[in-house]
Amino acid sequence: MTYEAILYDVADGIATVTLNRPDKLNAWTRAMQAEVHDAMHRAAADGAVRAIVLTGAGRGFCAGADMGLLSDIQEKGAQRVSAEPAARAVPPQGSALPDFGKTYSWFPTIPKPIVGAINGPCAGLGLVIALYCDMRFAARGAMFTTAFAQRGLIAEHGISWLLPRLIGLPQAADLLYSARKVGADEAQRLGLVQRVLPDAELMPATREYLRAIVEGVSPRSVAVMKRQIWEAQFQTLGEAIEVGNVEMLESFGSDDFKEGVAHYLEKRAPRFTGR
């Protein structure tokens, strides 16, 4: 696929997917939806990629759905303008739960860590996309808002499931009902983001964090753990323990387990293969 609404780059084992409509604060379009879907699956299938960053070009992360798209929906109706990305096979080791096969909920099927580098306004649908990342690092100048209630809309695309799990039900109700703006520091206190960084340090610090993952841990372990923690949201404690027991036995037979022991005993840098 040729990308027009995003940029895609791979360096040092990290794929960077950049929403690229800076003049529109990277407002989300159907083309962007399809391209992000393609780029994430491309990164998942690339053995040279072990981690992914999702960010925005210019001064915004994503200001939500493009107003042209919303106008289209208003004029023609949601069913006539909706566009699901073409179906893609679940990458190896990614979650195959049907819950993760919806329009945006496929992010957990990508068996590599995805960090959202939130560099500016993150609103509405942009916030939904950010919440499907495994973690979020924010520039100090970033701003977050659900925005839906201000447009006469509702908690869409699973944010009613995601947000309470991340920050608690009363806090989720507050952000959804009021559609108020939340700065980066408050977002960190609420648990929306894990780190707040000076604007100029956001991407270097995000890449430094991911380089430690790329260079220091087993990609097989990360893929399995990502599947475990997302699928555990639908499991009892006992079920999660049983899954863990099975996966632990599987890991004992892996090349990465052998390498994990060997590099520790030999006091050298690891050479994990993901197998």
UniProtKB/TrEMBL annotation:
It comes from the Bacteria. Transmembrane segments: none annotated. The keyword Lyase applies. Its EC number is 4.2.1.17. InterPro entries: ClpP/crotonase-like_dom_sf, ECH/Chromodomain_protein, Enoyl-CoA_hydra/iso. CDD domains: crotonase-like. SUPFAM superfamilies: ClpP/crotonase. Keywords: Lyase. Belongs to the enoyl-CoA hydratase/isomerase family. This is Enoyl-CoA hydratase. It comes from Zeimonas arvi.
